[in-house]
Amino acid sequence: VVRAVTTAAAAAPAIDPTLQDSLKRAVAKRAVELVKPGMIVGLGTGSTSSMAIQELGKLVSQGKLKDVVGVASSYQSRILARQYGVKTVDLNDVNVIDFAFDGADEVDASMNLIKGGGAAHTMEKVVDAMAKQCIILVDQTKVVSKLGLTFPVPVEVLPFAISPVLRALVGLGGVPEIRNALRKDGPVITDLGNMVVDVRFPDGVKDPAEMERSINMIPGVVESGLFVGIANTVLVATRDGDEITI
Ligand code: 5RP
């Protein structure tokens, strides 16, 4: 069932991880149904995008999608694509990306996004923005009425400039925290060699476009995880088995 959502949905309660995975798989399969032979496809990063890359690989190996090539948004996606038989090309070798799929950490009713939970948002933004059609794949837990109330805004920062950037983020009303590796033995370093700062906004992000601009204007910031005006479609899998497009 596909129906249009015209009003902001409230944040959905957390769901069982197994169910969440099956919802992610469902939207991943839907997304690759939209890929046509010969397309240059932007490959997002994260668990949902990984499932879509796997599903794309299955169709390619069945000979159903001849001459499809991927443009990866991270080393993780590039390695996975190769593993599943999807050829990849460098972003700089293409003039256009026909179609891109990607996940998100939060989505609002205007298709503004928070991305970067996987520390890949800088390259993702370039790939997604270059695509003629960018489709975002989420399960219902990611749909919120206001961005930033539960998920912080990831910001990629030059290590050289970490202190002034942290101060400037506080100046914007944020509570920044340098993202640490799981084993707590140092900061997360992105594919581009930078650090990630997660910025909490106690009252959420009031104006995503303005906040994206303000963050990106701080010298030393490489890119913020606020994505405004990039998604063309958001596909939301719900626990009732519906797929809703925003
Ligand atoms: C990586 C991202 C991911 O798309 C985002 O974190 C969603 O991930 P998942 O599909 O695993 O929930 O922005 O930087």
UniProtKB/TrEMBL annotation:
Cellular-component GO terms for this entry: cytoplasm
Keywords attached to this Swiss-Prot or TrEMBL record, sorted alphabetically, are: Isomerase
What GO terms in the biological process aspect are recorded for it?
Answer: D-ribose metabolic process; pentose-phosphate shunt, non-oxidative branch
| Reactions it catalyzes | aldehydo-D-ribose 5-phosphate = D-ribulose 5-phosphate
Q: Name one GO molecular function term.
A: ribose-5-phosphate isomerase activity
What pathway does the UniProt record associate with this protein?
Carbohydrate degradation; pentose phosphate pathway; D-ribose 5-phosphate from D-ribulose 5-phosphate (non-oxidative stage): step 1/1
Pfam families the UniProt entry points to? Rib_5-P_isom_A
| E.C. designation(s) | 5.3.1.6
Q: Which CDD domains match?
A: RPI_A
Q: Which family does it belong to?
A: Belongs to the ribose 5-phosphate isomerase family.
- From the Swiss-Prot or TrEMBL record, give the protein name: ribose-5-phosphate isomerase
Recall the taxonomic lineage recorded for the source organism: Eukaryota, Viridiplantae, Streptophyta, Embryophyta, Tracheophyta
